[in-house]
# Entry
Amino acid sequence: MSGGLFRESIRDLVPYEPGKPVEAVQRELGLDRVVKLASNEGPFPPFAAALEAIERAASELNRYPDGGVYSLRAALAERHGVALEQVVVAAGADGVLDLLSQATLDPGDDIVCGWPSFASYVLFAAKLGAASRKVPLVDDTYDLDGLLAAIGPRTKLVYVCHPNNPTGTGNGRAALARFLDEVPEHVLVVLDQAYFEYIDDPDYADGIKEHFKAGRRVVVLRTFSKIYGLAGLRVGYGIAPADVVVATSKVRRAFDVTATAQVAALASLDGHEEIARRRATNAVGRIQLEGIFREHGLEPAGPALGNFLYADVGDGRAVFEQLLQQGVIVRPLAGFGAPGAIRVTVGTAEENAVFAAALGHVLSGVSS
# Structure
């Protein structure tokens, strides 16, 4: 009966396969404990100020949220030294990507990105009938020269995932600046810095300070889902040229960012000391996780900059399933373009130790 009902552009898309809730995995496999290291949320809870803001907002949840996200946008504009009209907020950085795609892409247009990389770049384009030019990584890192060579007359968006999800690698300051200077004027560059607050590499560029505010035509993405501990509320933002923000406002839903997400994000902005503590804790955990991989004969991609590691294990889906039997959830990466690899989020020291034991069981062929 569906006949010609559904759009041709979505025919070959595969629905997103969400991971099972921890409680369901425990129940189905008869496990006392399950450690989730799959989604890069990190082990940190929301800031105390964010929880207090959520509690205060709860009594007014019978009202719609501020559709313009004014208070949060104003605070972000002040924080980054940009105009209010240059800030777009959506349901996660992923939500900003969706708005950018809707605002720019027609059937027959294309986007350019590295591959393997964040699958939403490709999926959002495909939904709109646009093509994706996927440029293979070099040493697990974005090939910026390859991106430039792939740009065509109908390219609208070029994505630089920085650091790249899922490999965790980034491009140096000078290389990124040179790339941005060489991108043709008809193309909008989206610099995805969702893991920005985790980075302590001195050669890593702040896209807002060093590129957007320098006048380059670039959209820089950030999120509250990672180090801020608000993944469950879905709130992210982009700093973008004013005409880009206006275009996204034409395609966004009126009340896309919930009231609790807005107040929690706003209350989190002053947590500088806690951000620094979490960054340092993550760096220690990342080193621990790197050692675990190497102890088991696996070499993670690197240097990794965020809160996750990527490693080729031969058959990512099989290793995922085997680790699941041991009570550890990681991310198989076929959907990211890397079927032979897994991505593992940095957990607490205890969670990393659980992963180490589980990986040892799996790689040695021990089932229990």
